[in-house]
Amino acid sequence: MPARILAGDAYLITQGSGAYSINESLVENLTLHAGVQIVSPEILSLGTVRGEPVVVRAAEPGTFLSLEGGEWVQPATLGNRSAYAGEGLVRRLGLAAGENATLVGSSVPQIAFVHIAGIYRTATPANDEMLVDFPMGRFLSGLGSTAFHSIRLRTSDPAPLLSFLREFGASVHVSGPNLLRADIASDPPTDERISNLILRSGIGGAPRDYLSTAVSEATTSVAVVAYGIAGLLGALVAFGIHAAQARAFADRAPAVGVLRAIGAGNRWMRRRLLLESFPLALGAAVLGAGLGFLAENWLQPKASLVIFGHEVLVTFDLTTFVFVVLAVVATSMLSGLVLLRGALVTRPIESIRETAAVASPQSLEVILRG
User: 247 in helix, strand or coil?
Assistant: First the structure.
């Protein structure tokens, strides 16, 4: 399919592994070559129009239709940012002459607005393409101001053409009717995929794909929101654990005072606290995380989490489960040590003594007491 799209029944010249050669200088010299009838430099961009995949080709319309054996269905009109749509593309996307279309590039992150100035028809795969001018093609593909992706031409004898390219010093691949691929001043291509072999913008692969860039940025945005929500929930859980343990520890403050009064040291108190708290914290963490997973799984789809229009599915991940349990246990241990530290700075006698609350006299008591 790439060969049918790019070459058709013409000879195709694409970039080799050497210095970049598919440029305006080579096109001018090929145009002046005696054995060449038609020369069509072209730039291809794989993009989308109205969310559908489209091959956008930058070429001179008259030369392009001569190579493809095509004709105008609705004659082209000149204008700024004009584009010409194939009849098959018009039917597939519901386009019409005179409309505006939005082109989204794939080889570089670009968005362009064009005016459909004409409709053409061919009997080749080019009938499902969109034709633009060279500035627009370079804008969508990221090529330099004098560069092209490929050159198509017609010649009666390819041998003089190959000799000319060798003398010119071009690093190219040449293929066409009854001609096996010729590698001139170039290594054989290692990858036959269209994105790496044909849309090569120099030594190496094509520029970064727009879809990959968009997915990466969207993933980063979703990750920021997800981690932010997780951090907020973690902070609420930590405050809840500390509040519950503070209430329970307040009832045991006199016991701490008694142990210190009979000679228990601070290190022994901390070790005792950790030994007593760890089993309870571990059990509570496992039970809470497990019940949370079961409850969320049971409530779906009514309680689904949606971020940027994408539903976050509930899946049991052992690594995440262990991390949550360890975080809860660590929070519980740290909270207990903070509470114990406050009790250790208090004198034992003050911790043991239970001071009765002094109630303020009510108005009736004041009257009776005179």
Answer: helix
Q: Using N-to-C axis directions, what is the helix angle for 158-168 and 24-32, rounded to 10°?
A: 140
User: Residue 71 forms beta bridges with which residues?
Assistant: 121
- The pLDDT tens digits for 124-162 are 888 999 999 999 988 888 888 888 989 999 988 889 999
Reported pTM: 0.53
Helix (H, G, I), strand (E, B) or coil at 364: helix
Dihedrals phi, psi of 121, to nearest 5 degrees? -135, 135
HEC string of 185-201? Answer: CCCCCCCCCHHHHCCCC
DSSP, collapsed to helix, strand or coil, labels residue 152 as strand
Measured over the CA atoms of residue 107, residue 113, residue 117 and residue 123, the dihedral's sign is positive
Which backbone phi and psi does 64 adopt, to 5 degrees? -60, -45
C-alpha to C-alpha distance for 184 and 179, rounded to whole angstroms: 14
Structure tokens at 212: 């990959």
Quote the CA–CA distance of 150 and 28 in Å, as a whole number. 14
Q: How far, in Å, CA of 51 to CA of 60, rounded?
A: 26
